[in-house]
Write a structure and sequence with these properties.
With 219 residues, the protein is mainly α. It has ten helices and no strands. Helix 1 packs across helix 4, helix 2 packs across helix 7 and helix 7 runs parallel beside helix 9. The protein is globular and about 55 Å long. The termini are far apart. 26% of the residues are buried. The C terminus is likely disordered.
Length: 219
């Protein structure tokens, strides 16, 4: 009887673990789709490239070559590097992709921790949005970074970049517009402050001018 109870408990535990595992994978894929969707825009792709490269501590040109060689969007590229970090070989991943498997299947075969993937991808998206805001405030730093990294956005594109839903693209467009609007307001605010400061300098501070003048003569 004890073995029967043990089997039943094990089966119940497995049955409850399957939905939890699927939920973790869905949450992770939601974050990964955000990365992919943002990279469908030229400006967004540049920012995603910088963010992913910094997160993975990789060279941007190397990531571009990997994307082109394996037809990987940035979301899948992030998973692939996570698998490599866990002990997989990029050549083996490439061979499995060529055989017809997708990254999710390869990741599941490697027993990837989807919960951790979701956490890491969420952090990456937060950093990406911060970098997007900084780009809209002043994109000169990103232009200089492109030159330093030897990054050419015109060749950083693969067919897999289109493997994203309309809803994900719409969400990316909303995020894009949100940070562009906030950057515009920040620039306008700085410009207004600078203009006001310049105007005060031109006309002088009336309070200081009055305090420093001689008192009128007494009658």
């Amino acid at each position: 009887m004890k073995w029967f109870v043990h089997v039943c408990v094990t089966l119940i535990a497995l049955a409850s673990a399957v939905p939890a595992f699927a939920d973790d994978q869905q949450k992770a894929e939601k974050q990964l789709h955000k990365i992919t969707a943002m990279a469908t825009d030229a400006t967004g792709r540049r920012v995603v490239s910088i963010t992913v490269a910094d997160t993975l501590e990789a060279k941007r040109v190397d990531l571009v070559m990997e994307r082109r060689a394996m037809n990987l969007n940035y979301g899948d590229l992030f998973i692939a590097h996570g698998l490599v970090k866990s002990g997989a070989k990029m050549d083996d991943i490439a061979a499995q992709l060529k055989a017809g498997k997708d990254l999710a299947q390869i990741a599941n075969a490697q027993h990837v921790d989807w919960k951790q993937v979701a956490v890491d991808a969420k952090k990456l998206n937060a950093t990406m949005e911060d970098n997007l805001y900084k780009h809209f405030v002043d994109g000169k730093a990103d232009t200089a970074r492109d030159l330093a990294d030897g990054y050419d956005p015109s060749i950083d594109g693969v067919t897999a970049d289109n493997n994203v839903s309309k809803d994900d693209i719409a969400a990316a467009e909303h995020t894009y517009q949100l940070w562009r609007d906030r950057a515009d307001k920040a620039r306008d605010s700085k410009l207004d402050a600078a203009t006001e400061k310049s105007a005060q300098g031109a006309r002088g501070d009336p309070v200081r001018a009055k305090a420093g003048s001689l008192a009128p003569p007494k009658n």
